[in-house]
Design brief:
mainly alpha, single chain, elongated, 342 residues, 11 helices
Length: 342
Amino acid sequence: MDRCWLLVIFLFGCFFGATDASEGDADPLYRVCIEQCEKMGSVGDISIQHCQFLSDGVLADSPWYMQEPLYVQWKQWNCRSDCQYFCMMRREKEREALGLRPVKYYGKWPFKRSSVLQEPVSAVLSALTLVVQFNGWLSFFLLSYYKLPLRPHSGRTYYEYTCLWHIYGLLSMNAWFWGAIYHTRCFDLTEKLDHLSSVALIGFALILAVLRTFNVKTEASRVMIAAPLLAFLTTHILYLNFYELDHELNMKVCVAMGIGQVLLWSVWAGVTRHPSRFKIWAVVIGGAMAIFLELYDFPPHKGYVDSHALWHATNIPLAYLWWSFVYEDVEFRTSAITKKAR
């Protein structure tokens, strides 16, 4: 849940960031700069290497072996994207000299690149959260199969939700991986993979929330509950992937699923006597406080740290706290079941 319902706010912000007109890219001086850059291949004293290449990456009037490096082609940086970036940096310096605040370009704040990273702080923090998710899932695996007792005949765990948490962990790692890639370089493919992996995680987390909070144990009951939700989630992902990446529709679906699971976990934490129920409240309250960072939406400090980067920073302790609840849930349920068996 740590990433899932916070992602609702992220997708909400992405939608309005993509649809609202940005003051920066509407600036006539910025547009003129791009036109001159694409013609001349330079912005001031900066020479744009990509403007010397054709669209297929081959240097004009040169043999086939004179090509851009593969990692440059993978980053999808080309003449236009580089011109947009350097013209943006130039205009922001001019605005700063005039005492004006930074403005958004194409729905995003002006970030400074760092090596191959387009949004370096958000990319690094996403990668760190991926490490926390991996460590959480691995610790859960070791706890379930090597530290706690197993059923003597089948060798399976006593904990009824082991498989579900495995799937959740894999989907979480997948979502944070593509989130890190998206912040490393944002273009159509990375945006789609980031959004689709996030939707898959939010949808499965809702299924997991329903099954765990209602304590659904039998396979038949789980199938009856999960089947319609999985069918809807699969249809939604296929629609976004093969028909249209509808940001407005995706935002509505994610908001509905996110609110649903937050309400389920919150009510469950309020009525249960689970020893780790306070950790759920901590995640909910911490996530609610993190939402204000997204709503505040201040420009990047020194061109690197904005409100969304700080939001990413909050996900690291929240992810650790959430997996901590999972560990204690495994121990609590295993202890209760083995005591009954004795």
